[in-house]
Write a structure and sequence with these properties.
By secondary structure, this protein is mainly alpha-helical. The chain is built from 19 helices and 2 strands. The chain has 2 domains: about 270 residues, no CATH class; about 240 residues, no CATH class. Strand 1 and strand 2 form a beta hairpin. The longest helix is centred in the middle third of the chain and has 34 residues. The termini are far apart.
Length: about 500
C-alpha cells in the first residue's frame, strides 16, 4: 500500500511546503529561499524513488491510487504513472530546484511570494502528468495557470502585464473547449458504462467506439487546447511575449515543462481516445508542425534579442515533437517523448545562460555583445554546449530525438509521404544557422568594453552548480539514450497499438 501513496506524497510535498512557507517572516529572505529549495529537492528525491521502483516492461499505469472525490458525478482522485508520465515528472522535479537556485540573486522583491508561486506551480505541473481522471486533470491544468500568471505579471519585464494576460487568455480559451469535450465524452460514456464517468481507463474503452463524426469534434476540442499550449503554428503568438517578459526562472519552467503539457495531452488523450479522428487529422496537423519547424527557425534567425531567439527556437523544436507524435510509428513516438525531455534540458540551459548575462549587463540585445570569450571563458563553454545540444549535434541529447522522429516519420504509414521528413530535416539546418550565428556574434569577434559590459563576470559557484546537472543529462542522453528510451518503450508501443488496432479499418497500410 505504501507504494500506492508515493504519487500523493509527491504532490503533497510542494503543496504543504508552499503553505508552510507562508508562516515564515517576509523579512527572512535567506530562510525562505533555503526552505523553498529544500522542499523542491525533497520532491526530486521522491521522484527518484518512483524511478527506481518503476517497472519499465509494464505498459500500464503504476503506483495508482484512487478514491471517490465527487460521488454524485462519479469523479475520483485517481493518480498513477507510466513511462511517459515518469520522464516528465522527473524533468519537472529536476528543473524546479534548479530554477529556484538560479533566481537566488535575480529575484529581489517579494521573495516569499515568488517562492510560494514556484512551489504551487510545481504542484500543478506534477498533477497534470499524474492525473488519470479527466476532471482532476482539468483542475490541475487550470490551477497551473494562476501561479505562472503571477510569476510573469509581478516579476517579469516592462511589458509583463500584457504578456501575462495574453498567456492567460490564450490558454483559458483552449481549456474551456477541452472542458466541453470532457463533459461531452463523459456523458457519451454513460451509455456503454451505465454511469457518468471521467475515469481515463474507462474512457479508453469507450472513446474508440464513438462514431467517427462525433470523434472528430471531440478530438478537435482537445487538440486545439493542447495545440495552444505546445504552441503549434499558428497558435504560437503568446509564447515569445511570455518568454521575453518572464523572469529567468519563469522562462525555464515555461519552456522546460509547461510546453510539454500540450504534447503530453496529445499523446495521452487525443490519440488513444479518438484514434480514427487522430489518423484522419494526422496529415493536416503534421503540415502545421512542419510549417512551425521552418517558420520558427526562420523568425529566430532575424531576432535581435537573445531571449526572443530562444523562444522562437522552441516553436521550431516543438514542431518536431508534434510531427513525431502524429507520424504514429514506434520510432517517431519514442523520438517525440525523448525530444520533449531534450528540449526541456537544452532550452532550459539556454534561458538560464541568457538570464545569467542579463543579471550582469541588463541587456539581451545581441548587438551589445561580442568577443566575450576572453572575459567569461566558463560561460562561453557552457553556452557552446547548450547551443550544440539545441542544434542536435551527434553525441548530445538533441540528436537522438530528432533522428528518431525523422526516421519514424519517413517510415510512417499514416503520413505516407517522405515530404514531411524532407521539409522537417531542413529545420535542423536552419537551427544550426541561427544558433551558431548567435554564438558567433555573442562569444567571438573583437571585445569592446562598454558601460553595459563592464560588470560582466564569469560563472560563479552557484551558477555552475545549477548548470552541471543539466549538462550531465545532455551528455548522458546523447551517449547512452537507452537509459531513458527503455522507460518509454512499452508505453509508446502500447499507444501506437491502441490507435492502429482501433482504427484498422482506415489505417493506410
Amino acid at each position: 500500500m505504501e507504494n500506492n501513496l508515493l504519487i500523493t506524497y509527491l504532490l503533497l510535498i510542494p503543496l504543504v511546503g508552499s503553505v508552510l512557507l507562508l508562516s515564515l517572516p517576509k523579512e527572512k529572505e535567506s530562510s525562505i529561499r533555503i526552505f523553498g529549495l529544500i522542499v523542491s529537492l525533497a520532491a526530486f528525491i521522491l521522484s527518484l524513488l518512483l524511478y527506481f521502483r518503476f517497472d519499465p516492461t509494464n505498459a500500464g499505469f503504476q503506483f495508482t491510487q484512487k478514491f471517490i472525490w465527487v460521488e454524485k458525478l462519479n469523479v475520483s482522485y485517481f493518480v498513477g504513472i507510466d513511462g511517459l508520465s515518469l520522464v516528465l515528472v522527473l524533468l519537472t522535479t529536476l528543473l524546479t530546484p534548479l530554477t529556484l537556485l538560479s533566481s537566488w540573486k535575480g529575484i529581489q522583491k517579494n521573495v516569499k511570494e515568488f517562492t510560494f508561486f514556484m512551489l504551487m506551480l510545481e504542484v500543478g505541473m506534477l498533477g497534470v502528468f499524474v492525473s488519470l481522471d479527466l476532471f482532476l486533470f482539468y483542475i490541475f491544468w487550470e490551477a497551473m495557470l494562476i501561479p505562472m500568471y503571477f510569476i510573469i505579471g509581478i516579476w517579469g519585464g516592462p511589458k509583463r502585464i500584457y504578456a501575462s494576460v495574453k498567456f492567460f487568455i490564450y490558454t483559458m480559451f483552449g481549456s474551456l473547449l477541452m472542458l466541453v469535450a470532457i463533459i461531452w465524452l463523459a456523458v457519451y460514456a454513460s451509455g456503454p458504462l451505465g454511469v457518468f464517468s471521467t475515469n481515463l481507463l474507462d474512457l479508453y474503452q469507450v472513446g474508440p467506439t464513438i462514431a467517427k463524426q462525433i470523434q472528430f469534434w471531440m478530438f478537435a476540442a482537445f487538440a486545439f487546447s493542447f495545440a495552444i499550449k505546445v504552441p503549434l503554428f499558428p497558435l504560437h503568438t503568446w509564447l515569445p511575449d511570455a518568454h521575453v517578459e518572464a523572469p529567468t526562472a519563469g522562462s525555464v519552467i515555461l519552456a522546460g515543462v509547461l510546453l510539454k503539457m500540450g504534447t503530453y495531452g496529445l499523446i495521452r488523450f487525443c490519440l488513444p481516445l479518438f484514434p480514427q479522428a487522430a489518423i484522419a487529422f494526422a496529415p493536416y496537423i503534421s503540415v502545421l508542425a512542419v510549417i512551425g519547424i521552418i517558420y520558427g527557425a526562420l523568425v529566430a534567425m532575424v531576432q535581435k534579442d537573445m531571449k526572443k531567439l530562444v523562444a522562437y527556437s522552441s516553436v521550431s523544436h516543438l514542431g518536431f515533437v508534434v510531427l513525431g507524435i502524429f507520424a504514429m510509428t514506434q520510432q517517431s513516438m519514442q523520438g517525440a517523448i525523448i525530444q520533449m525531455v531534450n528540449h526541456g534540458l537544452s532550452t532550459g540551459a539556454l534561458f538560464l545562460l541568457v538570464g545569467i548575462v542579463y543579471e550582469r549587463t541588463h541587456s539581451r540585445e545581441i548587438a551589445d555583445y561580442g568577443g566575450i570569450a576572453k572575459v567569461v571563458p566558463l560561460f562561453s563553454v557552457a553556452f557552446m554546449i547548450a547551443s550544440l545540444s539545441s542544434i542536435g549535434l551527434p553525441g548530445l541529447n538533441g540528436f537522438i530525438g530528432e533522428f528518431l522522429i525523422l526516421i519514424g516519420s519517413f517510415k510512417s504509414g499514416v503520413l505516407n509521404s517522405w515530404w514531411f521528413t524532407a521539409f522537417a530535416a531542413s529545420g535542423v539546418i536552419f537551427a544550426a544557422v541561427y544558433m551558431l550565428w548567435l554564438y558567433q556574434r555573442v562569444v567571438f569577434g573583437e571585445y569592446h568594453s562598454t558601460p553595459k559590459l563592464e560588470h560582466l563576470t564569469d560563472l560563479n559557484a552557484r551558477e555552475i552548480i545549477v548548470l552541471i546537472p543539466i549538462f550531465i543529462f545532455i551528455v548522458w542522453i546523447g551517449i547512452y539514450p537507452g537509459t531513458f528510451l527503455k522507460l518509454t518503450d512499452a508505453v509508446s508501443a502500447s499507444i501506437i497499438h491502441q490507435v492502429t488496432t482501433a482504427s484498422s479499418s482506415i489505417l493506410i497500410k
